[in-house]
Structures are given as C-alpha cells and as structure tokens.
Amino acid sequence: MKDRVHDVVTAVIESVRQALTEKQVTLEEYRAAVNFLNETAAAGELPLLSDVYFNITIVENENAQHQGTRADLEGPYYLPNAPFLEDEIKTMEAFEGEAMLIQGRVTDTAGAPLAGAVLDIWQSTPDGKYSGIHDNIPVEYYRGKVRTDSEGRYRIKSTVPVPYEIPNKGPTGKLLQMMGSHTWRPAHIHFKAMADGHHPLTMQAYFEGGEWVNDDCCSGKCNEGQNIIPKKYEGGTRVMDIDIVLDKAA
Ligand code: MBD
Ligand code: FE
Fold first, then answer.
1. Whether the predicted pLDDT of 48 surpasses 70
2. Mean pLDDT taken over the chain
3. Which atom, in ligand 1's list, is nearest to the CA of 74?
4. I need a labelling partner for 73 at 20 to 30 A (CA). Which of 54, 59, 110, 124 fits?
5. If you take atom 2 of ligand 1, which residue's CA is the nearest one?
6. Which residues line ligand 1 (CB under 6 A)?
7. How far apart are CA 93 and CA 184, in angstroms?
8. What DSSP assignment string belongs to 180-211?
9. What pairing do the DSSP bridges indicate for beta strands 153-159 and 99-108?
C-alpha cells in the first residue's frame, strides 16, 4: 500500500510541478490557489470539486476493464447506508414530481439473471438537492436499495428528476464560471449495482432528449454510453427500462 501511495502521489506531484513550471506560476498566484483550496475545504466542497474534474477519469479507468454496463460518475452525494425499500423511493409531497417507474433486469455478461443482486439508487430532489447532504432533507428520501427477484428483475417507483445545478454559490461554482463553464448536469438517476461474485458497478441513467445530456459540467460523457434511456410512458408514468450487466469479479 505504501508503494502504491508513493507511486501515485509522486506522479501527481510531478504533473502539478510541470504545470507550475510550464505556466511560470508566481508566488501570488500559487498562494491564491492554496487559499482557494482552503475555502473549498471550509465550504465542504472538496468532494464536489474533485468529482467535477477527476471522477470522469476514474470512470474511464474502470471502463477500460469492463465488458458489462458502462460505469459512470459516482458524484459526491452517495451515502452507503440507505434503507431497503418496498416498491417505492420516498419522495417529498412538497414537490409535485412526475411519476416514474424504474425497472429492468440484472444479468451477468453471458445473459444469465443475477437473483438477489442489490441496486442502491439515489437521485436529487426536484430542486436539485440531495437528502442527507443539503438543507436537512431526511436521508430516507430520494434514496434506497432494491433486491432483484429470482429472474434478476427489479421494479421501483419514484418521481422524475430534473436537470441538476451543482451548488453555484460556493468556490466550485465560482471556479467553473471563471473557467467559462456552466454549472449544470443533465437530469440523472444514480445506481450502484452489487451481486455476489461480481464486480460492483457505479453508473447513472439519463433521460432521452434531456437538457445538458450533451454538455455535462462534470465532463461526463453521458452521450457515449447506453445509459440514455428512451422516452417511454405508460398511463402517464415515465418508464425507465434499465438493464444492467455485471462483470464477474476478477
Ligand atoms: C452530482 O449530483 C453528480 O452526480 C456529480 C457527478 C457531480 C456533482 C453533483
Ligand atoms: Fe448526482
């Protein structure tokens, strides 16, 4: 482990030094950058800042090793202890969200169903907040786990999320704006899929035709995967058919 830390941190230090040299960064600029990181930490935004710029690279590393469903951004708002749900993700009545059904099948790369696989699902409120993180929204809302049945199927009700603006008043939002970027992500649903003997998968699903799907502020390549879900309605409910293929554990 020490060797791995040494190896990776040495490479990071070298690439930062190289950038500082290439751009002939001054003491004043260097100090401003350190202060920026300090403010970001004080605002609790280090996970956000990191994920905006670097989570995508980790995703690409994962996908280089994958046969199954493409991995995607985890983002900074996953909480591991969400409850198991009956048939519904708890949503807040204050928001009149459009009804949504998320359903599909979890299989291995040979197409065999994975019974008893766990899907951990999380999404933002319709005004772009995450429970357990923002505005004291109780953690039991907008999160939860489902288990696949004997045929690998799952089915859970929720409400349709809307495009998500990352907190734009803090240091991360300010930096994005200084960099000429907007602060929006397409509407999305987060998943972690886990099954015994299989490699866990962190992914997201997006909505066909959704705003920002082709222009995610987190450098997400939403449009390169299979994870843009076709527009489908059944009796006024937006149906998200999301099948997930998991690789065998190495
Ligand atoms: C999010 O909700 C998110 O999913 C990502 C990847 C980054 C910031 C906020
Ligand atoms: Fe998110």
1. yes
2. 93
3. 6
4. 110
5. 75
6. 48, 51, 55, 73, 75-77, 164, 166, 185, 218
7. 25
8. T---EE--EEEEEEE-TTB--EEEEEEETT-T
9. antiparallel
The rounded Å distance from CA 114 to ligand 1 centre is: 28
Residues 6 or more apart in contact with residue 47 via CB below 8 angstroms? 76
Tokens of 24: 């002939």
Ligand 1: residue whose CA is nearest its atom 8 = 75
pLDDT above 70 as % of the chain: 97
Where does residue 239 rank: exposed (0-12), middle (13-18), buried (19+ CB within 10 A)?
A: middle
Testing ligand 1's pocket by substitution, the residue of 49, 77, 203, 227 carrying the most ligand atoms inside 8 A of its CB is: 77
Query: Radius of gyration (Cα) for the chain, nearest Å?
Result: 20
Amino acid 216 reads D
Nearest CA to ligand 1 atom 5: 75
Position 205 pLDDT exceeds 70: yes
In the predicted structure, residue 61 carries a pLDDT above the cut 80: yes
pLDDT tens readout for residues 122-161: 999 878 889 999 888 999 999 999 999 999 999 999 999 9
Ligand 2 center from residue 210 Cα (angstroms): 15
Residue whose Cα lies nearest atom 3 of ligand 1: it is 75
Query: In the chain, which ranges are E strands?
Result: 99-108, 118-122, 143-147, 153-159, 164-165, 184-185, 188-194, 201-207, 228-229, 233-234, 237-241, 244-246
In terms of Cα–Cα distance, which of 141, 183, 191 is closest to 163?
Answer: 183
Q: What pLDDT is attached to residue 223?
A: 60
- 16 contacts: CB under 8 Å, gap ≥ 6: none
